[in-house]
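Work package 3, deliverable 3.1, input record:
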Amino acid sequence: MTDLAHIRNFSIVAHIDHGKSTLADRLIQETNTVSERDMKEQLLDAMDIERERGITIKANTVRIEYTARDGEDYVLNLIDTPGHVDFAYEVSRSMRAVEGSLLVVDSTQGVEAQTLANVYQAIDADHEIVPVFNKIDLPASDIDRVAEQVEDVIGIDASGAIPVSAKTGEGIREVLEAIVTRLPAPKGAPDAPLKAMLVDSWYDAYLGVIVLVRVIDGTLKKGARVRFMSNGAVHGVDRVGVFRPTMQDVGELGPGEIGFLTASIKQVRDTRVGDTITTEKHGATEPLPGFKPSQPVVFCGLFPVDNAEFEDLRDAIDKLALNDASFSHEMETSAALGFGFRCGFLGLLHLEVIRDRIEREYGIDLVTTAPSVIYHVHMRDGSMIELHNPADMPDPTLVDHIEEPRIKATILVPDEYLGDVLKLCQDRRGIQEDLTYAGSRAMVVYDLPLNEVVFDFYDRLKSVTKGYASFDYQMTGYRQDNLVKMQILVNEEPVDALSIMVHRDRAESRGRAMCEKLKDLIPRHMFKIPIQAAIGGKVIARETLAALRKDVTAKCYGGDVSRKKKLLDKQKAGKKKMRQFGKVDIPQEAFISALKMDG
Amino acid sequence: MFFGGGTPSLMSPRLVARILRAADRAWGIGEGTEITLEANPTSSEAGRFRGYRDAGVNRLSIGVQSLRDPDLRRLGRLHSAAEALRTIEIASRSFDRTSFDLIYARQDQTPEAWRIELEQALSLNPSHLALYQLTIEAGTAFGARFDAGKLPGLPGDDRAADLWHLTQEVTQAHGLPAYEISNHARPGAESRHNLTYWRGGDWAGIGPGAHGRLTLDGRRIATETPLAPGEWLHAAEAGRATVHLPEDEPAEILLMMGLRLREGVDLARYDALGGPPLACLPELIGDGLLRREGDRLSLTDEGRPLLNAILSRLLA
């Protein structure tokens, strides 16, 4: 156990690409925590998908031992927090586990919306914040401008900011010294009943669930029997240890320390982020504040392209659910797509990550249906239905009114793109709440319906601002609006997987856009195909896909036979990637692409 | 007999004569046997035409491709339109039966321009014409150029279909209807050799990279030989140039090849080769794309330009 005065716990707050992972790598290297031989780029981001997207999905942690200029040995615990709006609650728990933050800002870029959201979480958690201006080795670096932004936009003192280059290593020592001298030591009572906060957890095939904890009070010991206060489950602690960044056993963790425990726990869903762990006997009576079970907000159907792979999909989803408590799933049957699962996610990134993992790690081709939010459908008889799937929409004559979830969106954008951003928000039924300037950048706050954002809002925002805008949101609540279910009919047959909920005023334009998209996405057939959008029985938009007129191989002689046969076989295999609706084959990508809005 | 697959017109007439004598000794070449040789339309090759005739060749197939110089250059051909016309003229002096090929649906080709070029070709009075739509295939030099956006002005689906129908109309009017997807002939002047491919007959493929088909005890056998000439020569001298393999899915191949012919395909033979049931047949007949008379199945005029789409439904 390390005495409190020699512990410093911190997180790093940064926007994607501002150098968080590189800085973490340098801190690890500078303190010889990892031998040169084992060092590889971006040690903390483990999954391929995390590396590719440059984001962190699971919290990671590393314990660094550092001999400061005062001659004392310190233990520095870094928690690398998830860096995306989808994981705001997880971020908030990580923030509560540490006392300070390094605010890393790319000195060639400036403050971004995502940085803002996380830095406000740090401020909420009463952190001491040390600004670190990265990439000073680049010619475009402008420390004075960034300092001004930090003071204007975030409202914290930037006079003590440390200029660094995580790439060259310049300034890294100063960062380590600042952690020791400027961040507070943790507080806590070693003899009080155990209170450890569950920061994150994940599944390991050999060890079962690994639980990342921050000990607040008391001592967590190997062999102890502990209780998870949210569900009352009791487990015997098998191992207690720290990350360096590989797992190393220690006998116990005292107040202020961050480490892991394993207790032969089978399912991640039994270990909820933010829960309080105490001892079975003489334990704490009050849990730590702020715990809330995670709630999926975005839903979609996942179906195997090949129906024969349904059992494989079930297996893949079960395995992924073992490691992800925030992801919900239940079986779903679609007339169009056969058997699959209705899945709930924390946000669109979360959805994409899970879908990518099923396709890549389990090799299953998926059809993903339109993402949907939860609508509150209030019936005439006074009851309320939570609608996750437009296909389940009750008979409209029995419905009194429908409410939809709203969000507060914060967007930071260089003023030259402001007009485009305002138009985008307006087009998505947004209500402007605030518009302020900081230098040449505007900060806009909009009240938006979540369903207008879940699908491709972020992509559109990036494209209209050439990637210069940053975006963050939080849920604000439900509000009644004029919402209807829109169906798509292909060759006169409704395709349930393409049904969406839409605002009545936007139905015509959405319907027209979808029909036009489908006309391009569905290959021509030997007959013409009407594509229609309808509300109830009323057609509101229509396109016609012309019949195929020519599809024949020009040259086919004796020597060409096997090559042409292969071509035919390939065509047949391609057809398997499509879904058949009556006589019409619809390619799997159509189910998502049809919903993309260009405006 | 058919000398093809490359530029056999680079051979000396003496060598052609020796090969034909060897074939005659081995199998006996009957009276009236069709003996075709493929030739390029260059003057040096045209100089050998009389020699080929004297050696026993009685039909010439010339790779003209276009009667327009800019298009010949775009297609990467070395000859000119004038050379092509002269070659056809020389060939017609030595041979009763000549055929040449043209490629259409080229870059920036209007239906009107194609009609004029096709009528010019027909005015040369060939008994046989092969008219291919330009096809961009993945994995070829053209495919790579197409992907790189370097082949602008190629017709889309609709214009390609217009050009196809125009081709049918013009050749029909001149007495050279299509007897196969891309092959047109005066009645009786069809390529007997090529009909063998489409009718699922037997042929012996001799030489580097040659494919053949044999029916042994009712089973279809595909034969193959090494592609590299040196390797083939070596293997041939050792008496093992030809590899025999059972033909993969012979019924599907019979259907794929046979439907290319106006006369169609024999369904009884398809069944005898173990072909899978053709579930969509009644629907495709009902849609006017296929015609069935007894056991004979053929494409209608509407179905012909859609053969690939029809096959993928029939064999789904």
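The mean pLDDT of chain B is 94.
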